[in-house]
Structures are given as structure tokens and as C-alpha cells.
Amino acid sequence: MKIILDTNAYVAFKLGYSELVEYLLRADLILVSPIVLGELMLHLIYTFRRKYATKIPG
Fold it and tell me: Does the predicted model carry a pTM greater than 0.85?
């Protein structure tokens, strides 16, 4: 079985939702679309900037 994850499914996986994890374990192939990768990358950039912007004085 092939599965393609959207952003919500990826977040649920990272949070450890047991039903989703069990479902993914049965998959032969798990795909993530370029759109989801872009959304996750933007989130990381935003989080990184926000985290370090608060540490810079002035």
C-alpha cells in the first residue's frame, strides 16, 4: 500500500498518534508531497528566526 502524507498527517505522526503510526507501519511506501515539504521548511525557518531573534539584544 502507498501512502502520501499531508501536513496534518505528518504532524499527527510526529505527535505519536498511535492509530496513524500503526497505519503507516503497514505501508509499503510513504510519500510526502513537495507542497508539504515546503510548508514544513517554512515552519522550521519561522521557528528558527523566532527563537534566535529573541536572543539578540537591542
Answer: no
